[in-house]
């Protein structure tokens, strides 16, 4: 009786353990699938794009994401290394903008991890303007690459990802039409900026960007020459430019003085950002920037 009971009890316990193991494996499998493809973006606008294209199929982490902080002051941390070590897709700007990432991905197995250098994707070289997110063809090109890579890693996601891509491209086409409309109205209008953050967008609008030597000095955190400063001030005091764009995330005494001088001479001042604002989408963000530009140009 006792032996029979022990044998039956052992079988019951064994079956329960088997059931528990199967359940545990199922949970682990489901959890891993639910986590999706791990994507790490150096900048939050590329991370946002990955989210918009990948949807529920991706798990995205953006390294630089604070819209109120100066991205030039970013320093890496152990959490950054950990995130990159778990990534299946890594996206970074390139063109010397986020050179801190180069050493961090040097040891990454390129056969196992997809690395996207956006500058290479859009044909921008080291030494050229690195603010690629204001280049109108950047996001569509990256969106198509992301859709392809995500679908390759998870073929079952292809339908959803392609639908998300189509939605994004449709929305971005509206942004392009807005830019073209601005160009048709204001092409050739002289403008300036405290640094070349908005340069590609201004070019796409056909605006004539003045004071580039000054802007590049500020961008590279070097002191403009007295002549550069005098020439720049002259453009504002003589109202030779119709709008002043400034980087709203970076401020120093020189750029602040230029903004004050522009306002004193009734020149509209428009803030643009290097990091995407929170709680918005790529196309809504770009639409807002274009609308702000149009409002300023209309005052000329």
Topology of this structure?
Blueprint: H1 2-35, E1 37-43, H2 44-54, E2 58-64, H3 78-85, E3 89-92, H4 100-104, E4 114-117, H5 118-122, H6 138-153, H7 158-186, E5 190-193, H8 199-204, E6 208-210, H9 212-219, H10 226-237, E7 244-247, H11 253-264, E8 269-272, H12 282-297
Parallel strand pairs: 1-2, 1-3, 3-4, 5-6, 5-7, 7-8
Question: What's the quick description here?
Answer:
The protein has 300 residues and is an alpha/beta fold. 54% of the residues lie in helices and 12% in strands. It has two domains: 36-65 and 77-174, Nitrogenase molybdenum iron protein domain (Rossmann fold, 3-Layer(aba) Sandwich); 187-297, 3-Layer(aba) Sandwich (Rossmann fold).
Tag the structure with descriptive keywords.
Rossmann fold, 4-stranded parallel β-sheet, 2 domains, alpha/beta, disordered N terminus
Describe the protein.
With 300 residues, the protein is of the alpha/beta class. It folds into 2 domains: 36-65 and 77-174, Nitrogenase molybdenum iron protein domain (Rossmann fold); 187-297, Nitrogenase molybdenum iron protein domain (Rossmann fold, 3-Layer(aba) Sandwich). It is built from 12 helices and 8 strands. It has a 4-stranded parallel sheet with strand order 2-1-3-4, with helices on both faces. A 4-stranded parallel sheet has the order 6-5-7-8. Strand 1, helix 2 (44-54) and strand 2 (58-64) form a beta-alpha-beta unit. The protein is globular and about 60 Å long. The relative contact order is 0.11.
């Amino acid at each position: 009786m006792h032996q029979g009971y022990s044998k039956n009890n052992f079988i019951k316990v064994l079956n329960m353990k088997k059931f528990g193991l199967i359940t545990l494996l199922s949970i682990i499998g489901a959890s891993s699938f639910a986590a999706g493809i791990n994507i790490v973006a150096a900048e939050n606008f590329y991370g946002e794009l990955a989210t918009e294209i990948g949807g529920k199929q991706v798990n995205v982490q953006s390294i630089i994401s604070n819209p109120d902080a100066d991205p030039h002051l970013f320093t890496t941390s152990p959490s950054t290394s950990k995130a990159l070590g778990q990534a299946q897709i890594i996206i970074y700007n390139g063109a010397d903008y986020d050179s801190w990432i180069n050493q961090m991905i040097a040891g990454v197995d390129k056969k196992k991890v997809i690395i996207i250098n956006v500058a290479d994707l859009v044909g921008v070289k080291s030494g050229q303007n690195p603010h690629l997110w204001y280049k109108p063809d950047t996001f569509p090109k990256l969106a198509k690459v992301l859709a392809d890579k995500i679908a390759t890693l998870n073929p079952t996601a292809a339908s959803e990802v392609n639908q998300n891509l189509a939605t994004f491209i449709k929305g971005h086409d509206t942004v392009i039409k807005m830019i073209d409309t601005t160009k048709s109205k204001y092409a050739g209008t002289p403008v300036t900026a405290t640094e070349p953050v908005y340069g590609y967008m201004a070019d796409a609008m056909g605006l004539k960007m003045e004071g580039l030597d000054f802007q590049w000095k500020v961008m590279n955190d070097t002191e403009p020459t007295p002549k550069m400063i005098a020439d720049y001030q002259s453009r504002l005091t003589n109202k030779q430019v119709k709008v002043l764009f400034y980087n709203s995330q970076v401020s120093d005494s020189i750029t602040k003085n230029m903004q004050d001088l522009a306002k004193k001479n009734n020149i509209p001042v428009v803030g643009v950002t290097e990091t995407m604002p929170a709680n918005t989408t790529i196309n809504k963000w770009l639409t807002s920037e274009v609308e702000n530009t149009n409002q300023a140009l209309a005052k000329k």
